[in-house]
Design a protein that fits this description.
Elements lengths: L1 H33 L5 E4 L3 E8 L11 H22 L7 H24 L2 E7 L9 H19 L3 H8 L7
Antiparallel strand pairs: 1-2, 2-3
Helix pairs in contact: 1-3, 2-3, 3-4
Length: about 170
């Protein structure tokens, strides 16, 4: 049992490091190539790269509440790590749930790194067509994870799957 948790944790950690690296690399690129400059239009009227220092959370809410957002992120990270390592089985049936946990973890860490080191989160992806709030790669991870949760929750996982995860009995791997 401990060996399987170590193996699963190692796989999750390697995947998270790769995802976090991609997020941080794109944010540093945005900082270097976009900060203080006009937006880089990739598709006129549709999509552009535009540098933004977001001192809040999603959609700019909770502006200036860095301590609260940092503590909230830390709590979320602990919960996600616990469920990933201890509650969600490692078998193929739970691949999507495990992937969701890795995506949430990676996205949260990616933005937490900015929040702690810069006191803001770098956002730079902007859909002009729908005037969607500017976002970043870590936000994409969390959004994909949320969509996976909804779709798999509605159409893939059954009540007995959730019982395996949330029951007080020990789970099978």
């Amino acid at each position: 049992m401990e060996h399987s948790i170590l193996k699963k944790g190692s796989i999750g950690l390697i995947c998270s490091i790769a995802l976090i690296f991609l997020d941080q690399w794109t944010k540093r690129g945005a900082e270097v190539y976009l900060k203080g400059k006009d937006a880089l239009v990739l598709m006129e009227g549709v999509f552009e790269l535009r540098y933004l220092e977001n001192r809040g959370a999603a959609f700019g809410i909770l502006q200036g509440r860095q301590v609260f957002l940092t503590l909230l992120t830390a709590i979320i990270l602990v919960i996600v790590a616990y469920f990933y390592l201890k509650r969600i089985p490692s078998n193929k049936r739970f691949f999507w749930m495990n992937l969701t946990a890795v995506l949430i973890f990676s996205g949260a860490i990616g933005n937490l790194i900015d929040r702690i080191s810069l006191h803001y989160v770098i956002d730079f992806l902007y859909f002009v067509l729908i005037d969607f709030p500017i976002f970043n790669v870590a936000d994409i991870y969390v959004t994909i994870a949320a969509c996976l949760l909804i779709v798999t929750g509605l159409f893939y996982y059954k009540e007995e799957d959730y019982e395996r995860i949330f029951s007080s009995r020990s789970r099978d791997t």
